Amino acid sequence: MLKEILPTHAVILAGGRGTRFWPRSRTRTPKQLLNIVGKETMLEQTAARLLPLIPGERIWTVTNTEQAAAVQKQVPAAARKRVLIEPKGLNTAVAIGLAAIHARHVARGDALLAVLPADHYIAQPEKYRKIVAAALDVAREPGRMVVFGIPPTRPETGFGYIERVGEPISANGFPVFAVKRFTEKPALPSAVEYVASGKYHWNAGMFFWRVSTFLDNLKSFLPQTHAALEELSALIGKRSYETQLRAMYQKLQSISVDYAVLEPATRTEGPPRVFVIPAEIGWSDIGSWAAVYELLAKKNGENVLAGSGHALDAEGNFLWAPSKFVAVIGVRDLVVVETLDALLICPRDRAQDVAKMVKYLEEKKRSDLL
Q1: What is the three-class DSSP state of 360?
Q2: How far, in Å, CA of 197 to CA of 276, rounded?
Q3: β strands within the chain, DSSP E
Q4: Per CATH, the architecture of 8-284 is what?
Q5: In the chain, which residues fall in CATH 3.90.550.10?
Q6: Strands 200-210, 145-150: parallel, antiparallel or unpaired by DSSP?
Q7: pLDDT of 3
Q8: Does residue 270 carry a pLDDT above 90?
Q9: Is the pTM for the entire model greater than 0.90?
């Protein structure tokens, strides 16, 4: 039986703020638009990983008004006309729905969608593309939704988990399991139990499905959002589109695609609808400056410097001040990040708390530092 020929589109979600990467990450230049690891920005790396598999004219990027100009400059030339600007952030369910109706409009019918965050690091891009191709092959079957599951390397409490069930099927040589349930960020005892069981994976927020499959599920589980998107779909390319888009975003629910679609789909009776592919691809969501240190340090205790400097009786420090010579003496496990107008100094094990500093600046209305 011949497989149905469907065009493949990618959706890059690029609207986050990256508050844990302050002071480099700001409202107009958040984490995904910075060269956090390597010379290219996170968004540039995400798009480059896709190009051997999906052409630029089929790569959609969803962002917001503050970041749109920078996003336009960083995506491949062929993808610049595919940048979708949300009037305000309403989480991932609406953002993916917006991209889905646009992909359907361009494809003049159904299409396969790969939905990906803009700000994740992947050490093995070639293997990643092979697993993406396998996931899309599974998602070609109407009604099936596929997620990447990262095999856990530690009992991490900062990630959501996916529990798999049953024996795997094979897609392009990769095992594919039915998903039993999604779980929230667990307490440490539960995380230890999950890792020991071998049946749980970290949820990397990478999703694969047909446009029709996604929209059908949206209609079932989030009918108001689905109806609004279908109304907007009829106006794509028309003058009234922008006015309708702004009006729509004032009324819709802000909810993640996990809550809105994937979790209820796993609780629906009948054959499995959600599947997970274990993806050992050197993945990191690079969630803090401490995570950047862990990626860049070649051995435990090494000092990581962005520019020139010297460490005397110091170890385990991450030092980002590329315009200055940095001298450190007798300090351990610090994060130091300098910009023209701010300086961050904190222990590496408190790097997650940088977001609290951003909240403080918001409360003090320090827009000059946000």
Answers
A1: helix
A2: 16
A3: 8-13, 59-64, 83-86, 112-117, 121-122, 145-150, 161-171, 174-183, 200-210, 274-278, 283-284, 304-305, 309-312, 318-320, 326-329, 334-338, 343-347
A4: Alpha-Beta Complex (3.90)
A5: 8-284
A6: antiparallel
A7: 67
A8: no
A9: yes
